[in-house]
């Protein structure tokens, strides 16, 4: 292993994931640490100590002594400064609002529970403070407004101290906060040129497409997130339950995901007319309706596990294509997608996404791109490359990729139309059942 490496940790919903990279950006080690005491936080309430233990375990699994440690994770997530409780993006408080509103709603809940003395912190800021970093700062992605009361703003990729070794982590590492997993993944995936897009995979997934922040798309860019390159915005959004839907199906059937995907590979495209709406936890982009729930239609007596699995996989591709079609209505073209996370490890799943989206899909050799982005933050603090917002395309390393070329099919074109139509019908039924809301 090279003498000089930096590490990044992505604190996820069910596990902490770490990578170590060298000055050239090559991944020299990776590690994953599930949260053994984690209950899934269905109500969106978590003991932050679970995340800290997972972070340290993932870091230990690298078998490396990094010069610097970068950290990011899921959001919007708000941690009580006392370390007693954290509320994640799954908490109902502020769930229908944007990130700023959700953080504010989280804070009200925390203070009602724990007292007015509680101050809010972003997850990564809190965890690094526990390791020895400055407890009074909030890491800021370029172009974002500071969150009131979350500490003094500093740019993402700025050192906040060194590790003390009190929790089993290596002593003397430079501690560097990053940002939420979407920002970290887009940075690692080089989503910095119009038309490039990313799907972060994982339990949720989604589609973020790069556009010019000025000119004809200036208005819609206001609703997107800033890229790590000035003048570029990323629009689209997260879905809700793509990976989680497969995990649910695995639990219901009692079969591992890999076995289910093998069965799906033997099923013809179109899944014999079976269609899934993967709204297990509602739908975010493009409808933003958390009241929706998953549906399966077209089942017959002959329908087997493989057909249902294939339909589920195809539905996640339709979900991304629905976002792409919505953006196309605003004149935003999709040219290429970088796909990562668990679903990207499946050639079947990735090839279906390429076929439905009708663009090439690149799968990085690194499985954990959010953790890779956190490692980029660590390297930026050491001066290995610029911080986000301070460079141009090509200034940062990126892992090698495997490309899946699209093989579009008419059955998928018709399937997307049907997927959107069924989703619209589900919205109408939901509205009829809630006439006074």
Verbal overview:
With 437 residues, this protein is α+β, with helices and mostly antiparallel strands. It has a domain at 6-185 and 370-381: Nucleotidyltransferase, domain 5 (2-Layer Sandwich). The protein has eleven helices and 21 strands. Helix 7 crosses helix 8 (305-328) and helix 8 packs parallel to helix 9 (347-357). The longest helix is centred in the last third of the chain and has 24 residues, at 305-328. The relative contact order is 0.14. The mean pLDDT is 94.
How is the secondary structure organized here?
Elements: E1 6-11, E2 15-21, E3 27-34, E4 45-46, H1 48-61, E5 68-73, E6 78-80, E7 86-87, H2 99-114, E8 120-122, H3 123-131, E9 137-140, E10 152-155, E11 161-162, E12 174-180, H4 181-188, E13 196-199, E14 206-212, H5 218-221, E15 225-226, E16 232-238, H6 242-253, H7 257-265, E17 275-277, E18 295-297, H8 305-328, E19 336-339, H9 347-357, E20 361-364, H10 369-381, E21 401-404, H11 410-433
Parallel strand pairs: 1-5, 5-12, 9-10, 13-19, 19-20
Antiparallel strand pairs: 1-2, 2-3, 4-7, 6-7, 6-8, 11-12, 13-14, 14-16, 15-16, 17-18, 20-21
Helix pairs in contact: 4-10, 6-8, 7-8, 8-9, 8-11
């Amino acid at each position: 292993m090279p003498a000089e490496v930096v590490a990044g940790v992505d604190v996820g919903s069910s596990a902490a994931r770490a990578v170590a990279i060298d000055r050239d950006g090559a991944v020299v080690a990776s590690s994953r640490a599930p949260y053994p005491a984690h209950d899934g936080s269905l109500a969106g309430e978590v003991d932050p100590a679970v995340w800290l233990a997972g972070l340290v375990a993932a870091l230990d699994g690298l078998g490396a002594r990094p010069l610097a440690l970068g950290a990011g994770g899921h959001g919007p997530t708000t941690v009580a400064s006392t370390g007693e409780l954290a509320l994640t993006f799954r908490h109902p408080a502020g769930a229908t609002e944007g990130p700023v509103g959700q953080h504010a709603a989280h804070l009200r809940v925390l203070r009602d529970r724990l007292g007015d003395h509680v101050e809010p912190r972003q997850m990564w800021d809190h965890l690094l403070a526990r390791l020895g970093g400055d407890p009074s700062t909030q890491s800021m992605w370029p172009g974002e407004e500071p969150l009131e009361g979350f500490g003094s703003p500093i740019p993402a990729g700025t050192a906040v101290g060194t590790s003390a070794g009190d929790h089993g982590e290596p002593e003397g590492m430079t501690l560097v906060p990053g940002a939420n997993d979407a920002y970290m993944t887009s940075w690692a995936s080089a989503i910095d040129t119009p038309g490039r897009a990313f799907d972060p995979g994982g339990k949720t997934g989604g589609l973020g497409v790069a556009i010019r922040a000025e000119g004809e798309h200036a208005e819609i860019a206001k609703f997107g997130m800033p890229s790590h390159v000035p003048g570029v915005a990323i629009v689209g959004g997260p879905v809700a339950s793509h990976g989680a839907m497969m995990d649910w199906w695995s639990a219901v059937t009692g079969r591992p995901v890999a076995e289910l995907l093998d069965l799906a590979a033997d099923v013809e495209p179109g899944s014999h007319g079976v269609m899934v709406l993967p709204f297990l936890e509602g739908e975010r982009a493009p409808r933003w309706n958390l009241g929706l729930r998953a549906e399966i239609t077209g089942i017959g007596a002959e329908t087997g596990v493989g057909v249902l699995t294939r339909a589920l996989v195809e539905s996640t591709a339709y979900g991304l294509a629905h976002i792409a079609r919505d953006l196309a209505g605003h004149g935003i073209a999709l040219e290429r997608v970088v796909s990562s996370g668990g679903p990207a490890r499946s050639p079947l799943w990735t090839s279906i996404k390429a076929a439905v989206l009708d663009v090439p899909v690149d799968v990085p050799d690194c499985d954990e791109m959010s953790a890779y982005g956190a490692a980029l933050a660590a390297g930026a603090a050491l001066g290995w490359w610029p911080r986000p917002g301070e460079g141009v395309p090509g200034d940062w390393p990126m892992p090698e990729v495997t490309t899946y070329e699209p093989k579009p099919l008419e059955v998928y074109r018709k399937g997307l139309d049907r997927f959107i139509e069924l989703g619209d019908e589900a919205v109408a039924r939901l509205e009829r059942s809630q006439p006074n809301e």
